[in-house]
Amino acid sequence: MAARRRLEARLTESPPAEVAGAPVQELITTDGVKLRLGPSHWLMLRFSGTEPLLRLYCEAPSGERVDAVLAWARQFAETI
Questions:
Q1: Among 25, 4, 24, which residue's Cα sits nearest to residue 16?
Q2: pLDDT by residue (tens digit) across 12-30?
């Protein structure tokens, strides 16, 4: 739970300006934290409400870009 609180605080108080080399254009905190990186290009980090899980969602122009963004997100979450 402490790691969850640290990650949530980091994302809301000091969100990343860049994700896997792409600038963050918008931050949306409706249901988790969604980082818009461009048209049809985003990363969402969302904690489960019923399990101790962090879910990562991504949409990007290519499969390779999805892999890069998700790898960045995993590393970001693990280092908090």
A1: 24
A2: 899 999 999 999 999 999 9
Counting Cα atoms < 13 Å in the Cβ hemisphere of 54 gives: 20
Q: Is the pLDDT of residue 80 over 90?
A: no
Q: What is the mean pLDDT of residues 63-70?
A: 98
Strand duo 18-19 + 54-59: pairing: unpaired
- Classify residue 16 by burial, with Cβ atoms within 10 Å: 0-12, 13-18, 19+: middle
Write down the CATH superfamily of domain 2-78: Alpha-D-phosphohexomutase, C-terminal domain (3.30.310.50)
How far is the C-alpha of 64 from the C-alpha of 80, rounded, in Å? 25
- The residue extents of the domains of the chain are 2-78
Q: How many residues appear in the chain?
A: 80
